[in-house]
Design a protein that fits this description.
The structure is a homodimer. The first copy, chain A, has about 475 residues and is an alpha+beta fold. Chain A folds into four domains: about 1-85, Uridine Diphospho-n-acetylenolpyruvylglucosamine Reductase, domain 2 (2-Layer Sandwich), CATH 3.30.43.10; about 90-210, Uridine Diphospho-n-acetylenolpyruvylglucosamine Reductase, domain 3 (2-Layer Sandwich), CATH 3.30.465; about 215-335, Alpha-Beta Plaits (2-Layer Sandwich), CATH 3.30.70.2190; about 345-435, Alpha-Beta Plaits (2-Layer Sandwich). Chain A has helices at about 1-10, 25, 45-60, 110-120, 135-140, 150, 155-160, 185-190, 225-240, 250-260, 285-290, 295-310, 325-335, 335-340, 360-375, 400-415, 435-440, 440-455, and strands at about 15, 40, 65, 80-85, 90-95, 100-105, 120-125, 160-165, 170-175, 200-205, 210, 215-220, 245-250, 275-280, 315-320, 350, 350-355, 380-385, 390-395. In chain A, the strands form four sheets. In chain A, strands 12, 13, 14, 15, 16, 17, 18 and 19 form an eight-stranded antiparallel beta sheet that branches. In chain A, strands 5-6-10-8-9 form a five-stranded antiparallel beta sheet. A four-stranded mixed beta sheet of chain A has the order 1-2-4-3. The longest helix of chain A is centred in the last third of the chain and has 17 residues, at about 400-415. Chains A and B meet through β9, α8, α9, α11 and α17 of A and β9, α8, α9, α11 and α17 of B.
């Protein structure tokens, strides 16, 4: 085919994959979505991405970007399109210690950003289970979240500048390194979270923060979410906002963890209703340096807060991490979430956000309504509770598309009634198109369609994602 | 005229101003820009804004929003358009203490938000000299900055949700209260900073933060900017990022202040090259509660850092605020900037952003180049140094449009060469259209034009602002 020939001429045959060579890219890592790309191309730099997009435009063929392929929503699937893998664009162009930023290409894996920051005494605060595979381009395209959003914000909040290849192949250079720049519309944020439907992100300038000198980490047992939230408030007050993570694992999660990953152990002999992983961190030498008794002041502070709450009966047990090894073990139990959840089928996985004080009400209501819909349905939840962000997965008793969509509708319904969002941090992709059609403000959908038509008039950039058919 | 009649029918005659009644709105507060609106209307609520925009659309007349009229860039000027004043839309719809947010209409003055937050033990961290007049709508439309951006970010970073009346009069409801919501494109940030050219912001959900329990404030004298920046770094490290303001007043500023506002006094007998106003704040009881000697720990910390720097010769003098009254006096000297600068003519005022370590180089280079261009030209600078944001005002020797534009070009040139932006926090309006045409990436300008055409196909929303003619 003429387009393939043109792509080979532009990139070299080694970087234009077809047939069986595309297997790794043509399906998502869970095996939930499968596509049939025309070809998978692996450009070496921004100019080659631009060339590919121009060739695809000349042939009227869709273009779909893919980076680490760790997405959960089918955002990179294509049938008949050219899949642009950013994996070879893996250069860290610069790490600037004084300016606290890193300039990196879309194919850089997050752990490499973590390492590059650490080498300069800094920290790149995007942190989630898939960090060893997820790449910067995909993280930006989905406005990914993770465990540290409470302190540092989502990907959007960490991005200073962006480079994007537009639908016509032109390169939009927004690679500013400034913290203030009001020169016209905020185009950067338009492309972040657009999942490749408005252009392909090829590079970015990302903020770094001072590396924590000490962490205070604990796993805590409580009877209820309102009780547990007192801990968040007290630690935030006592530290002036230094809580980095506040993760919630309900009884169902702990029970599943015990079965699926017995090697990870459980922190408490009896599984509590509510297990919380809390972590605070400080960059202040005085808060991080052990005192004469060997106690790190920040850890002592957490210990005091926990002791007070135990005494008041607000929590029922707590374990402090006394070493980096213990801290890692606590995180391993939380980060097993994808592994122990996503293997189970049939499943309806959701990614909702709620006001913090509505999370308990959400769970109570949604479980009652789902039990009425499908008696025997099971569920598993894990949550970035500090953000009000729940990954609630329902396991219906039958693998029927209609039943699964009704389950999704019930979740959406309850979320909408509580002022929440059906989409928090995983993106929309294919999996939430029905939710977008049902729940998104129709005026907002119209504006999105107008923006899409303006920037991609031929509808060739990752078509069929994010915006439901009109 | 038919449109006036229709507006009167919709809003009542009392809220459709024409002729001399428009005087207050038809010019900016500096008297630098003058317009000739067809009428000034004062809608009571969002539905009335929508009605006005629909009527203007039916008559093919432009619509220009205005709120506090404290802008510096001519962003609200119109000749022949309907000016929509948001001043009657001054309701604070809700203050939610636990969720730390306020829901307010576009006509709410910032000091009312400060007061409403304070009543709940919270703080609304947008803070600048015009806070007693500036209204939320204008602040959002220009993505305003101010003195606390270093700690809390610009307006954009503080906005959770937005309500916008679109060019066709429909209401776009993006009034979410969540910290995570990835349901499609980020439309909110598209309207923030768009200066009314894509729609009229009528209400917003804004973040609040815990109210500081104590401040540590000092005025510091130094010989050079690199020396002064050591203070910022040391205090950020010692406090873990609790510096809220780091303001720079060079010798020229202090000299002008002495002449124009002798009542405010000067902190040092001899005017130093560099005067810095630094302020840190804490919400932590332990850092805010006076010790046995009556010393607030945070203040003691600043004192220690300053003493070390004095000893090392990095600063030459320092005065700590020992009372709220002393703190206010220090801020009064900084906040007189607009008053003591903007009265002087002929003037070219700029609002540039630079990497922090390039600010000194900028000043040296730009002053040399301007002296070559216009011998005898004077200047005055004041800066949010912690953000790299300088308000550099040049006073050319002749009031000639061409000379003033050449002065602006020189500033742009030097800024561009140092990786900065010609527009930091005041907006573009009319005053920076030439700069946009000369300096903004042409691809970015094309994308802006495409977005503008998509959302305002008839070009009636604040026409002629932000985007230069193509």
């Amino acid at each position: 085919m003429a387009l393939i020939d043109d792509l080979v001429a532009a990139l070299g045959a080694a970087h234009v994959l077809t047939g069986a060579d595309m297997a790794r890219h043509a399906r998502d890592w869970m095996g939930k979505y499968r596509g049939a790309p025309l070809a998978v191309v692996r450009p070496a730099d921004t100019a080659e991405v631009s060339a590919v997009v121009k060739l695809a435009a000349a042939h009227g063929v869709p273009v779909v970007p893919i980076s680490g392929n760790t997405g959960l929503v089918g955002g990179t699937m294509t049938t008949g399109g050219v899949m642009v893998s950013l994996e070879r664009m893996n250069r860290i162009r610069a790490v600037k210690r004084d300016a606290r930023l890193v300039v990196a290409e879309a194919g850089v894996i997050l752990t490499r950003l973590h390492d590059a920051a650490e080498a300069e005494g800094l920290y790149f605060p995007l942190w989630f289970g898939a960090r060893g595979s997820a790449m910067l381009g995909g993280v930006l395209s989905t406005n990914a979240g993770g465990s540290n959003v409470l302190r540092y914000g989502s990907t959007r909040a960490l991005c200073l500048g962006l480079e994007v290849v537009l639908a016509d192949g032109r390169v939009l250079d927004l690679m500013g390194e400034l913290h203030k720049d009001n020169s016209g519309y905020d185009l950067k944020n338009l492309f972040i979270g657009a999942e490749g439907t408005l252009g392909i992100i090829t590079a970015a300038v990302m903020k770094l923060v001072p590396a924590p000198r000490a962490h205070a980490t604990a796993t805590v047992a409580a009877r209820s979410l309102p009780d547990a939230l007192v801990l968040l408030n007290r630690m935030q007050e006592a530290t002036g906002g230094r809580v980095e993570a506040f993760e919630f694992m309900p009884r169902t999660y702990s029970e599943r963890l015990r079965v699926a990953r017995p090697d990870l152990g459980l922190p408490f002999d009896d599984i509590p209703e509510v297990t919380i992983l809390i972590e605070a961190a400080t960059t202040v030498p005085a808060e991080a340096t052990p005192d004469a008794a060997g106690e790190v002041p920040l850890v002592g502070l957490l210990e005091t807060v926990l002791a007070d709450m135990l005494e008041a009966g607000l929590i029922t047990d707590a374990v402090l991490a006394r070493s980096e090894q213990q801290r890692r073990a606590m995180w391993a139990r939380r980060e097993a979430a994808a592994e122990i959840t996503l293997g189970l089928t049939p499943a309806v996985d959701t990614d909702v956000c709620l006001p913090l004080d509505r999370v308990e009400g959400f769970l109570t209501t949604v479980l009652a309504r789902l039990e009425a819909l499908d008696p025997g349905l099971k569920s598993l939840t894990v949550a970035h509770l500090g953000d009000g962000n729940l990954h609630f997965t329902a396991f219906p008793t039958r693998d029927e598309a209609e039943l699964k969509d009704r389950v999704m509708e019930v979740v959406e319904d309850v979320v909408a009634g509580l002022g929440g969002s059906f989409s928090a941090e995983h993106g929309v992709g294919l999996s939430k198109l029905n939710s977008m059609a049902r729940r998104k403000n129709p005026v907002a959908l119209d504006v999105m369609r107008a923006v899409k038509a303006a920037l991609d008039p031929e509808g060739r950039m990752n078509p069929g994602k994010v915006i439901p058919a009109g």
